[in-house]
Amino acid sequence: MSRLRLPDVRRVAPEILPAELRRQAAPLTDVARAAERSVAVLLGRRQFLKALGVVLAALSAPITWAERAVAAARGRFLTSSEFHTLEALCDHILPPDADPGGRDLGAAGYIGSLLSGFDGRVPRIFAGGPFSNRNRFPDNTDGTPSLRRPRDSFRHFIPLTRVQGLRWRAELFGSAAVPGADFNDAALGPLKGLRDIYRDGIAQMDQLAETMKGAPFAALASADQDEVFAAADSMRVGLDPRRGSAFIDLLIQHTLEGCFAVPEYGGNRHSQGWRMIGLEGDDQPLGYSIFSLQTNGYNERPDHPMSTPNPDEVGPGGTVVPKPLSSDGQYIQQSIAFLSMLLGG
Known about the structure:
Layout: H1 30-38, H2 45-60, H3 64-73, H4 80-93, H5 107-115, E1 138-139, E2 144-145, H6 162-173, H7 185-188, H8 194-213, H9 222-235, H10 247-260, H11 272-276, E3 289-292, E4 297-300, H12 327-342
Antiparallel strand pairs: 1-2, 3-4
Helix pairs in contact: 4-5, 5-10, 8-9
């Protein structure tokens, strides 16, 4: 906040002070007189009211700028209130039921990490490798899993090339804001950055919710959120002509990425997204078949056999009983089949 600049203290005769500012007490000591002279900055009614107006205006001003400063100091782009709305939007796209929803899966954290991707020394765009520490090294002496794990190299993001940096800076900040990234703007129009798209889109969703239902999006009941979300989708809120996508389109894409990408990108909290759809995620360096020097052959992992059914799909008498697909899995399977039919597959 800017420091309030008060007028210089002048020696003032008490009789010219407004009556309401004069002390009616006993004679003042020297210290008290010095203190009262310091209060003489308020000596004129107009000066007093002017200073008071400045203070009240500062107190009543929106605190968005302060929230953004706090977020930036903590390495985040979105403010706490913006992030709260984003979590509610992600939870609306992937609602919780028996499984966690978009909020608990950390989709908003993934999006926030993407938007602040250039705020650190190394851009958080491409995770490193080759291994995380989710699986152990194999012991090739006897073809079994060892007790050693690799370090999580996924946590260490890799530097971008000059062209990659140019491309991703334009993606986040917009082509007009990045020197050298506007080479297609004359033909295609400027590319709006994801940071502006999300900041504007979140604000517009809250404004629409306030207009339709009288409260911010995150404070609405699920049925009211449905109506606001449908209205925003039909209105194509935040449409970017260059991308051909509206805010809702990008939000859905990034929410799904955040729920099921590797956790090092900020989402898929505790790998819950993978477990929800039956994926194990990255399986290296252990793999599923481990070479054994003792037998000069490969041993299959008992919990993940390659040539026999999975243990949890073996029924009575050794019959194979495949695990049924969930309703979500069936929908995905039907969508793939339908798309293949349309493409003539």
